[in-house]
Amino acid sequence: MVASFEPYRAHARHAPQQIDRRQTFTLPVPLLSLAACLGDILAILAAATAAGSAYHWAAFGTLGPIDGCVAAGAVLASLFVIRMHARGHYALERLTGRGLGVTDILSTWFIAAAILMGLAFLLKAGNDVSRGFFVTLVAAGPLAVCAGRAGVQALARRAVREHRVVERRVLLIGERGEALSLGLQRRLRDSGTRIVDVIACDFPGGDIEACAAAAIGRARAERVDQILICLNWSRFGELNEVLARLRVLPLPVLLVADHGLRSLLANPMTQIGSVPAVEVQRSPLSLGEQAAKRLFDLAFASCALVALLPLLAAVAVAVRLDSPGPVLFRQTRIGFSGRRFRIYKFRTMTTLDDGAVVQQARRDDARITRVGRFLRSSSIDELPQLLNVIRGDMSLVGPRPHALAHDDQYTRLIANYAFRHHVKPGITGLAQVSGCRGETPTVDHMERRVEHDIAYVNRWSVWLDLKLIVMTAVQVLKHDAY
Fold it and tell me: How far, in Å, CA of 397 to CA of 468, rounded?
């Protein structure tokens, strides 16, 4: 059966007139991406100039000289832009998105600042830049970048909406279920792509010859830059026949991953000799990766413990005065490769469950103390786990360790549960920042958490750890625990 999606046919008929009316105002996508890149650079240079002037005024009563400050800002801007470009933040899809990507901006910013500090130390080039200026710049820079990015994204969305961006014209061939379930048409339009037409080719029972003929006729009737095919990959015979018939067109033909394969193709590609393969499960971290993760954990946890020592002491006193019992709660958990360890937390409840039966905390649980409720809502009760990180039982980021009783239960119920133990457990993790935090009343809740944990193990990198730490800090200010 050959059909088309009528709403999109109507869109294809009327849109060319809009483009013709604004033809003199269109600009290529690379130019828009370059403008976004220059916007970030100018925002950082402006922040460096303002930070240098403010510091000199506060310290010396004058506004200059600030040559060294501007130079430091230029180096920082270069590091920041290179990393953001590598992460695809200047692609049109990201520029027209609704979110600013604050987490990525912050993580990239602090990484660039750390690299700049390291370069200044190694090259002995820090004499011309004061610490006061640098602290001010590190604090003000993300605000300037976010403000500039908000303006650029608003302009980019308006340019796409008004067809002022040179559009890539595509012809989409697909099944109704696949094309609509993927949200493909909306994503294409949001990225500055114009859908010339949508040829619906539904299987089984679809007329492949008529489907291909309709696509060929449409592609020859007006300008088409690409043909996208969105069919179920399980129907290899029909798919190959459609591809074979489209070879008469001198156009690039792209095959869109179907709904079942999208997550699979998101994994890294590798080769075994000359044979391509998709890595669906990575091996445990190599010795080098373990060393990098361990050094990062030690450095961050040690600095955090020193900085938070007054807070930890105050919380310890509050816990002891609020209710009888120890300050710290210790419980057996399962760590890397199934090894047991004792986890530390500030005591937030009147019970100290650690046995064959452990009842999870619930919202409005009567066992939670007054101080404990605040500690849980602010996640301060987790801070003693920095000691577990220093001891080597845990990492800053990784799958959250569960009570021994729960670990045994879910190992029997969830097939991939044990895969979580391929890395050390963490204080926070991908599951926690993705909304899978707190009580798991049903197996479905735990399965969703395990899916995120496995994704973290397969995608691990130092950059991902930094990103998740920043995301955790942001979410702690917005979400309630119990």
Answer: 7
Fill in the amino acid letter for 413: L
Average pLDDT score over residue span 217-233: 84
Residue type, 397: V
Element (H, E) at 299: helix 287-322
The whole-model pTM stands at: 0.53
The more confident residue out of 465 and 441 is: 465
C-alpha dist (Å) from residue 394 to 20, 209, 331, 426: 61, 60, 14, 6
Query: CB–CB of 195/12 below 8 Å?
Result: yes
> ω into residue 65 within 30 of 0, thus cis?
yes
| pLDDT tens, position by position, 374-393 | 888 888 899 999 999 999 99
Indicate if the alpha-carbon torsion angle 227, 230, 236, 239 is positive or negative.
negative
Please, is 313 exposed, middle or buried when counting C-beta atoms within 10 Å of its C-beta (0-12, 13-18, 19+)?
exposed
Contacts of 162 (CB under 8 A, 6+ apart): 22
